[in-house]
Amino acid sequence: MINKNDTNMELVKFEVGNIYSMSFIGDSELKPQFICVKRTAKTVTFERFQQTESISRRIKVYNNVEYILDGSYSMAPSIHADKVAG
Asked: What is the pTM of this model?
């Protein structure tokens, strides 16, 4: 069994200035891009790339990769730290 927060691997973290792709469970072709503009130990803020929308969420960790959910429902879109777009 794999521990979801295995300490043997290095944690993949969000970095300010990187562009990340948001993914949707219901539409795998839709990949809006967000730039990380602010980060603390527990939260991260993204702005939609070349637009004005922004989101701030608490950071969660799964399989040593940070991620956020843009909502509190089961099919909420997510941004994962290992999905760097640029």
From this structure: 0.85
The answer to whether 46 and 34 have CB atoms below 8 angstroms apart is: yes
* Residues 61, 69: Cα–Cα separation, whole Å: 11
Nearest 5°: CA angle at 68, between 28 and 13?
105
H-run or E-run covering 73:
none
Q: Taking the mean position of all CA atoms in its chain, how far away is CA 30?
A: 15
Half-sphere exposure of 38 (CA within 13 A, CB side): 9
* Average pLDDT of the chain, as a whole number: 90
Is the confidence at residue 1, as pLDDT, over 50?
no
The whole-angstrom separation of Cα 28 and Cα 83 is: 14
Chain centroid to CA 85: how far? 12
Positive or negative torsion for Cα 77, 81, 84, 86: positive
